[in-house]
């Protein structure tokens, strides 16, 4: 049974409903340029979901300030895909500077200073906290739906699973448009065996050679791919990954080259296009 979450925040079973009256005809998906890390902002009028926050809080706050109105100091949901510093490092600054209604994690923690600070602030600052996995859904006022596809169950805080292996994966559907957010999950074809085709793929693990195999890309058939990446010593994005995408005629966007990557979605047509 799906767990649905409505932005507002109202729980029914496994669903969260973001329930806020809003006349703004704006729905956006923004891949924030936070350097070597991930941060994705989903905005439905004045309702927001932030997935990950990069490594640097100052950078994240600056980028959020370019898209969230200065007077809006509430984020309905903040999702931490997994406890690596380049995904949760910036979230501590968000918890200090915004009212966060709900924190969502996969349940896994890490024995690092960054993770300990995030856990402390999440407990002190967030109104609610929930460990999520397959079956949890967030429903937006515009009827967009964010569905978590992985892991199958929330992880214990002391899980021996390598942090990337437990990354939360979520799919966003808005009318005919769809996005797949893969965190740092490696070898996606094994964890996401029955995933449906998607329009926009957030390339896993900043384009690591252990992600985005030809098998997986043939499964999800993206038309566009976003690589969230910055200056690094890991060889991200890997040449093999770029080759796999190019051979399949996938349009590639990179935050290190393109800055913030914004998809504007019209509520009247339920279609999303890159600005």
Largest sheet: 10 strands, mixed
CATH class: Alpha Beta
What name is given to the CATH topology?
Answer: Metallo-beta-lactamase, Chain A
The percent range for helix content is: 10-25%
What is the tally of helical segments? 8
Shape: globular
Spatial separation of the terminal alpha carbons: 36 Å
By CATH, the superfamily comes out as Ribonuclease Z/Hydroxyacylglutathione hydrolase-like
Rg calc: 17 Å
Quickly give the CATH architecture.
Answer: 4-Layer Sandwich
Secondary-structure element order, N to C: EEEEEEHEHHEHEEEEEHEHEHEHEE
State which percent range the strand residues make up. Answer: 25-35%
Mean pLDDT: 91
Low-pLDDT stretches are none
Please describe the topology of this protein:
Elements: E1 3-7, E2 10-13, E3 15-18, E4 27-31, E5 40-44, E6 47-51, H1 57-65, E7 74-79, H2 85-88, H3 91-97, E8 99-105, H4 113-125, E9 128-131, E10 136-139, E11 145-150, E12 169-174, E13 177-181, H5 188-191, E14 200-202, H6 214-220, E15 224-227, H7 239-247, E16 251-254, H8 255-258, E17 261-266, E18 271-274
Parallel strand pairs: 1-3, 1-10, 3-10, 6-7, 7-8, 8-9, 13-14, 14-15, 15-16
Antiparallel strand pairs: 1-2, 2-3, 4-5, 4-17, 5-6, 10-11, 11-12, 12-13, 17-18
Helix pairs in contact: 1-3, 3-4
Characterization of the model:
The protein is α/β, with parallel strands linked by helices. It has a single domain (3-267), classed as Ribonuclease Z/Hydroxyacylglutathione hydrolase-like (Metallo-beta-lactamase, Chain A), CATH 3.60.15. It contains eight helices and 18 strands. The chain has helices at 57-65, 85-88, 91-97, 113-125, 188-191, 214-220, 239-247, 255-258, and strands spanning 3-7, 10-13, 15-18, 27-31, 40-44, 47-51, 74-79, 99-105, 128-131, 136-139, 145-150, 169-174, 177-181, 200-202, 224-227, 251-254, 261-266, 271-274. β2 (10-13) and β3 form a beta hairpin. The longest helix is centred in the middle third of the chain and has 13 residues, at 113-125.
